[in-house]
TrEMBL record:
This is NADPH-dependent FMN reductase-like domain-containing protein. It comes from the Bacteria. InterPro entries: Flavoprotein-like_sf, FMN_Rdtase-like_dom, NAD(P)H-dep_reductase. Pfam families: FMN_red. Coiled coil: none annotated. It comes from Amycolatopsis tucumanensis. Residues 6-146 form the NADPH-dependent FMN reductase-like domain.
Length: 178
C-alpha cells in the first residue's frame, strides 16, 4: 500500500467564484502522483478568535480545523488581498492555528493568483510573517505568483488553461518533495 503525501489546501476567500478557491480546486484535480490535495472548506464556520475560548473543549469548527492541519503533511494557501493585507476571515483562521502545535515544522507554501498591479504583495508579506509565528517551514520553491484572470475559470469551477495548470502542478510537486 502506497502512502500518499497529504496537502491541505486553504483558500483565504469566502467569495463565490473566487479565483483563489478555483486554483485550489484545480490543484485537487491535478495533484501529482503520490500526492492528494484536500480542500479545507470551514473558513466561514470558524468563530471569531477569542483567547478565552482557546481551551478544551474547543469550538467544533476550531477542533476540526486543527485536526485537519495536524493530519496534513503540508499546507498550501491561496488568498486574496483586502485593503493591503490578509482578509479578516483568513487571518482569523490563522489566529486559531497559533494556539496549537498543528503547524509547527510543517512545510507550507502559497500560490498568489492576483493580477492586480501590486500583485497582492501586502497579503503575502503578512502571510509570511504569520507563518513564521506558527513555526512552519516555508518551501520557497512552491511559493509562486501565477496571475489567474477570471475568464480562465471554466463552468466547472476549475482553471482550464494548461499553462496555468502546469505551474500549479509544479508548485504542488515542489511542496510534496521538499
Amino acid at each position: 500500500m502506497t502512502t500518499l503525501f497529504r496537502i491541505l489546501a486553504v483558500s483565504g476567500s469566502t467569495r463565490a467564484g473566487s479565483t483563489n478557491s478555483a486554483v485550489l480546486a484545480t490543484a485537487q484535480a491535478i495533484a501529482p502522483e503520490g500526492a492528494v490535495v484536500e480542500v479545507y472548506d470551514g473558513l466561514r464556520s470558524l468563530p471569531h478568535f477569542d483567547p478565552d475560548d482557546d481551551r478544551d473543549p474547543l469550538p467544533d469548527a476550531v477542533a476540526d480545523l486543527r485536526g485537519q492541519l495536524k493530519e496534513a503533511d503540508a499546507v498550501l494557501f491561496c488568498t486574496p488581498e483586502y485593503a493591503g493585507a490578509l482578509p479578516g476571515s483568513f487571518k482569523n483562521l490563522l489566529d486559531w492555528a497559533v494556539g496549537s502545535d498543528a503547524m509547527g515544522g510543517k512545510p507550507v507554501a502559497w500560490i498568489n493568483v492576483s493580477s492586480s498591479v501590486t500583485g497582492a504583495a501586502g497579503a503575502h508579506e503578512s502571510l509570511r510573517t504569520v507563518l513564521g509565528y506558527l513555526g512552519t517551514r516555508i518551501v520557497e520553491e512552491a511559493c509562486v505568483h501565477i496571475p489567474v484572470p477570471r475568464e480562465a475559470i471554466g463552468a466547472d469551477g476549475l482553471v482550464g488553461d494548461e499553462a496555468i495548470r502546469e505551474r500549479v502542478r509544479a508548485a504542488l510537486t515542489a511542496l510534496a518533495t521538499r
